[in-house]
Amino acid sequence: MYRKMVQIRHFEDHAAEAYAQAKVGGFLHLYIGEEAVAVGAVAAVREDDHILGHYRDHGYALARGCDVKACMAELFGRETGLCHGRGGSMHLADATKHFWGGHAIVGSHIPIGAGMAYAMQYREEPLVVLDFFGDGATGNGIFHEGLNMAALWNLPVVFICENNLYGMGATLAEESPVSDMMIKAEGYTMPAVQCDGMDVLSVYGAVQQAAEHCRSGKGPFFVEAMTYRFRGHSMADPELYRDKEEVRRWRELDPIPRFGDFLVQHRITSPQELAEVNEEVEAEMLEAVRFADDSPWPDPDSVDRWIYAKPINPEAPEEAPSMAGDPAGAAT
Amino acid sequence: MAELTYREAVRSAMREEMRSDPRVILMGESITGYGGSYAVTKGLVEEFGPKRVMETPIAEAGIVGFAVGAAMGGLRPVAELMTVNFALLALDQIVNSAAKFHYMFGGQWSVPLVVRTVSGFGQLGPTHSQTFEGWFASVPGLKVVMPATPADAKGLLLAAIRDPDPVIFIEHSLLYSTKGEVPEQEGLEVPIGRAAVVREGTDVTLVGYSRMLLQALHAAEVLEREDGVSCEVIDLRTLRPLDYPTVVGSVARTHRLVLCGEDWRTGGFGGSLLSEIQDRSFDDLDAPIARVAMRDIPLPYSRKLEQQLIPASQQIVEAVRRMS
Ligand SMILES: Cc1ncc(C[n+]2csc(CCOP(=O)(O)OP(=O)(O)O)c2C)c(N)n1
Ligand SMILES: [Mg+2]
After folding, report:
1. I want to staple A263 with a disulfide (CB 3.0 to 4.6 A). Which of A269, B81, B185, B285 is the partner?
2. ipTM over 0.85
3. Can you list the residues of chain A whose pLDDT is less than 50?
4. B170 and B25 belong to one structural domain
């Protein structure tokens, strides 16, 4: 878990640098400061449990073990990217790793996660869905529609609210009548727990408990992780809405040195080993950036690929209506 | 052939596909005990049970989002949105989720989802009498189907459920009780993306879909009887992807074209259709393309006012007469 958090941190530092060099464009939302949430949560579940999250999604991808080079190349808009440069920073996904995407319309993936959980329940598979979103998303109607359905149908989905105290520039007090988001689960009779999102073990414990609950058929569970983003909302954010002192105080809770200290104190590892991890990860990230930079751009002729899984071209109609259903499942 | 109503045809497509494919589920508001607001799903929960015919909360965006997730999880959901007016609440999930995932995630998975919904009117007032097929048809990634006959309703719905992409399937409330011959063979698809020439003619082409197809056919009869004008009538059936070759081929024979729709004239589906046909058929046209569409006015409740606005065969007849 330590290595994963360091990976995310270094990935984000390099992404920010590439953004400053205009190698990464559009919106770039960094996960710096919040690493413990994705890492603790993903470590607490099975590798084939499903994950969905919002646009601040590099952490979910790396925590789930998506290829680092392909993630970086996606930010660079290259053909070798995780989504072949079609999605960008906000839309990483890897179906082979059961990571079903960064979703950039706030709250939109909340009922989608519930629907995926329904498919698991329908086939009686012992799998759960982890659905990550922010505090800001709880103000959107779609959040409530999703929770309502998940509770109504007793679905195996863990809703993980990353409460980082801000929805872009809006403070909690400006966006919500309650500052503890877990209270919102109560109306749906959903059990909820709050954990320290700056402590990877706290997140791990909460999500483990939640996933167990879901897996045993008891329905959805709500986990609120109290966390903080050390950087702006996106690279375009001048951060006029919060004071530097607050940021400094939260930075003292940095989940990476905190977990590092814990590991050293309990003699699980040594400072030298941690330093080595940092060096290895840094080398891995330099390699990823080099890979992304050297990767080819997508072929211009491929721009209209993947609009449809089954393109139908009336300009060249084939004869004979087919009677065959499609035998394959949704995922290819 | 068996004679079925449009309603029965839609229902039989769902029933047949649910019998043959256990992945198919239905979900929607009041579709179980109530049988659906237009009674289309009547009897299905009794046959397939509540796990496959799901009564949902009144949450259109949630329903479609949930159905997208269920589709990603390997099911074949058919989500009913009571009417297209309420589908507006689900536009985000339709446009930003269903229509985007295959593309933006680089083809990793598709969303085999059908959204069934209904347009129509009948003194329902401004919020309940609209039709937005042009909006849906403008979105790459969606397939948009609007059947006019029971046979097409059944065959196209079968094709839609089996299709790996999201399909918006728009029924018409005023067609539910119309009857027609439907092939008895189970599971017979009508392919998506193919228009049909439903009446051959030589003087002018009338293009319609859904209820306006019936209006166009009626207009063709009137024009033949009263004016001796021979109309070719095309049923588009699918609005996206659109079968331009069938329309262009017909215009090459008749040299005149009337586009018949029920949606608003400004921004309505006929507008983009017109521009494309003009590009492709300019040299074949002997007259400007005419459009029959709803005037840009919310549809009022009062019967007299409503009737005055609803596009009907008389306007098609007049459009043709103005051409010659
Ligand atoms: C429906 C919608 N409205 C507005 C936006 C613009 N937007 C992007 S992120 C964001 C703030 C979300 O805050 P929160 O859910 O707390 O997540 P955080 O960024 O703090 O991780 C907003 C308003 C959007 N993407 N989608
Ligand atoms: Mg937030």
Report:
1. A269
2. yes
3. 320-332
4. yes
